[in-house]
Give the backbone structure.
Amino acid sequence: MFGNTMSQKVLLNNKEVNIILHRLACQLIEKHNDFSNTALIGLQPRGKFLADRLVKILQEDYQIKDIKWGSLDITFFRDDFRRSDKPLQANSTHIDFIVEDKRIVFIDDVLYTGRSIRSALTAIQSFGRPAEIELLTLIDRRFSRHLPIQPDYRGRQVDAINNEKVKVNWSENEGEDSVYLINN
Amino acid sequence: MSELSVNHLLGIKYLNKADIDLIFSTADHFKEVINRPIKKVPSLRDITIANLFFENSTRTKLSFELAEKRLSADVINFSASQSSVKKGETLIDTVNNILSMKVDMVVMRHPNPGAGVFLSQHVNASIVNAGDGAHEHPTQALLDSFSIRERLGEVGGKNVVIVGDILHSRVALSNIFALQLQGANVMVCGPKTLLPKYIDKLGVKVETNLRKALEWCDVANMLRVQNERMDISYFPSTREYTQQFGVNKALLDSLDKEIVIMHPGPINRGVEITSDVADSDQAIILDQVQNGVAVRMAVIYLLASKIKN
């Protein structure tokens, strides 16, 4: 799957990812009850998979029927436009509900520098003024934040040094649910 | 994902198919942005853009200015009528004076064909051609194709006829290049006097019978008769032009299919198309205007991403 020059370590396997997703779903229910005034927003591109998966668990395993969820693209709100060597590729945004006065939960797979979340906080304002915004991440990379941003719900905390990369795989996309620590 | 192959948008002639695809996919996202409650993104907050209009324009200028403001760029406007151009300043001097005020991008409309190309070789800024004489008007052609793609799903394989004053039209030339690049079949239709002599060398079909052209096409792009560019009489009377090359509802209803009607504006109602056609569901004229902002945002965004700090 990866080249020989890279070493990789399994942080979470399929079963562990599944247990964590169920725990996160329960934590959301604890705080948001029937989700009547809550909306889940997956941050493009990778947070969307996690959001879709959590919604599926909430609907199928916990019988919460009316969940508002969508995806938010932050490309045009990033702070590294013209500063990054890579061109910034936009993704689609789907928010078909009113954001004004809703309790919003941002969902992303890995929290690293916090800059994406900063961008998302600005981007969501284009849709209205939410009552509150929380953050859920599957992986929280400690000691790597550039901004004072912390998750409200976290799957697993990871200590990774800067040239290491945390890769979250989803069965619908990469063929398996797993989290790897990759050393370049 | 790649980036544009060019640093300036001088004409469709300099673009490739991948560039057009990239502009359209980016414009899709901006179209969603401009339909949000707050229609603005902060991407270009450290970019300054000068709109230099050496020739009159209403909608193109407004569309560019709105696109720039929606991207949070700083905008300065300049019209030749209020400028030192009348005092004899050269184009390069005018633009270099503006650029010395730390301007990153220039959107220019100029009466002389090739003015944008000339400027791009002599000044240090990204140039967007907003129309140069009867040569090219690339953003109009892009928004036209974007609108066809939106209505019909794709541009490739479609039959598109451009009707009217082809001779004086920069919209026609840019549209021919853009449509052919995307694999559409292009026809031009108009009075012989308003068709350039060797237009068929561009690989377009030529037709002087409007009815035949409409029967062939999926999309008809109706151009305005540019009286202001006509130094001699190219047809006997407006009335006769309308009878032969004007589209009305009865003509459209007599066709065995429903074609899409486009117009780059401003419309001479009752000359090239009648009001009932312009206001019908077949016409996508106002969609073109809305798409113009999204497409221009995409062009400016993609060019700005190539300006390095």
